[in-house]
Amino acid sequence: EQGQYDAAYDLLSKALNTHIKNNFQYGIAEVNNKLGDLFIRKKDYQSALSYLLQSVEAGAKRLDHVGIAQNYQMIGDLYLKKGDLEQATSYLLRSKKMAETYALKGIQRNVYLNLIQLARKRDKAEQALAYYDQYVNIIDSLYNEEKQVQITNIESRYKFLQKEKELEIAQQQLSILQ
């Protein structure tokens, strides 16, 4: 995030070697994903693609649908940046299907943004608008879920404070009785 790519690469490479040595597939998938992201930021798309595909492979060994869907989206985005619209379409649609199947709304949001860009590059305004509508629906859904979590947390905190106050009153009454 800070642009210190060489330091990040060194640390991630060490982590990858450790995970490979321990045959820890989740770690292998995660580190390869991070290395893919690192090389996308450096605009070294060939290296990024290699790491992302390795992440997909490791994720497939453990049936990590979230990781695979995320990597497909990142690969689709990578091909979009390279201007390879056919490959971009292929990977983005795979990611979209998995994200919808497993209700991965954050990934769906990212896929729809990429599909909007893709449709624009192909001069397909109606398709871009349809993807935009889906994007907005996902954003609304994510927002509503976030607000529901906040409301639940506030309600829980209020109930906790009520119980705490009841306990305090009970302790005061006990002290008076004693």
Task: Describe what this molecule looks like in 3D.
This protein is mostly helical and 178 residues long. It has helices at residues 5-21, 25-41, 45-61, 65-82, 85-101, 105-121, 125-177. The N and C termini lie far apart (61 Å).
- Cα radius of gyration in angstroms: 23 Å
Number of strands: 0
Low-confidence blocks of residues: none
Global structural class: mainly alpha
SSE order, as H and E? HHHHHHH
**In percent terms, what proportion of residues is strand?**
under 5%
Q: How many helices?
A: 7
Give a concise summary.
This protein has 178 residues and is an all-alpha fold. Helices cover 88% and strands 0% of the residues.
What secondary-structure arrangement, pairings included, does this model have?
Layout: H1 5-21, H2 25-41, H3 45-61, H4 65-82, H5 85-101, H6 105-121, H7 125-177
Structural features:
88% helix; mainly alpha; 7 helices; 178 residues
